[in-house]
Amino acid sequence: MSQSVKAWTRPHDWAEVVLGVVLALSPIVVETSAAAAWTMVILGVLIAVDGLVSLAMPGMVYGEWAQLVLGVLVFISPWVMGYADLTGAAWTSWVIGVLTVAAGASALPVATSAHRTAGQH
């Protein structure tokens, strides 16, 4: 069985889980507003949960697309939610957003391959 088809083995998805947890916990260590804190916690939890679901079901391609969307939302959230002036929170969002998009984009071909392999009986 290929590494990409085997559950709980894909490093891209583990990276997504770690990025989500870091984002969700970052309001503990960086200065935030209420909007920034809630945005970071909610999006961080969504990223981590989606990463866990992708780990459990490696052939689920739409989970990787969700990661791309979540990464973009995290990246633009400092401007949309009005916390671009909070340097720590903004930079955390920008860096985690870019890394989440990168992890999702790199996992997309692997998930697509796993999806195709899982469909063959």
Automatic annotation (TrEMBL):
Residues spanning the membrane: 12-29, 35-53, 65-84, 90-111
InterPro entries assigned: SPW (IPR005530)
Keywords: Membrane, Transmembrane, Transmembrane helix
Domain SPW repeat-containing integral membrane span(s) in chain numbering: 12-105
Keyword set includes Transmembrane helix: yes
Keyword Mitochondrion: no
Record protein name field: SPW repeat protein
Organism classification: Bacteria, Bacillati, Actinomycetota, Actinomycetes, Pseudonocardiales
